[in-house]
Amino acid sequence: MQEQLTGGCLCGSIRYVVRGLPSYLTHCHCPTCRKASGAAFLTWFTVRSSEVEWRGEPLALYRSSAAVERGFCRRCGTSLSYRHESDPGEIDLTLCSLDRPDLLRPEHHTWWESRLDWVVPAVLGALPMFARSMEEGKLPRRRRREQHAEAHLE
C-alpha cells in the first residue's frame, strides 16, 4: 500500500494529503453518522491528525455532540472528517472522499445494533459486526494503530 493518500470534497474546494497508514477502518451504522452522510452507513479511516495536510478552503466545522466535531465542505456539503475530543491526536476521514478509496478495505462494522433493518450481513460480507463501539474490551486505539501499522509494513 502506498504511504500517501489523497482526497477531497466533491467540488474540489478542499483537498487533503495523508502521510502515514490508517489505524482503523470501519463502516459506522450509528444514527448520527447516517444522518450526517445521508447514507445507510458511513465508512471511516483513522489517522494521526499530524499526518493530514489540508489544502484549499478551510473545513467548515459542526459540533454534532458535546464531544464530537465534524468537518465538511461549506460549498458542496461533502462530509470529510470526524474528531472526538477524547483523542485530539487522531482524526477520522471519510473513506470515499479519497481519490482511490479502493486502496483501503474496511475491517469491521461498528454500531451494528443501530443499523437499518434492511442492511443485512449477506450484502455486506463477513466482516466482524460489533453491537456498539469496538472500544469496549479492546486495545486502546493507539495500540491498535501500532499493531495495524506493523502488520502493513511487514
TrEMBL record:
Pfam families: GFA (PF04828)
Keyword Cell inner membrane among record annotations: no
Protein name, as recorded: CENP-V/GFA domain-containing protein
Keyword Lyase attributed: yes
InterPro entries named in the record: CENP-V/GFA, Mss4-like_sf
Organism: Paludibacterium purpuratum
PROSITE patterns the UniProt entry points to: CENP_V_GFA (PS51891)
Similarity comment: Belongs to the Gfa family.
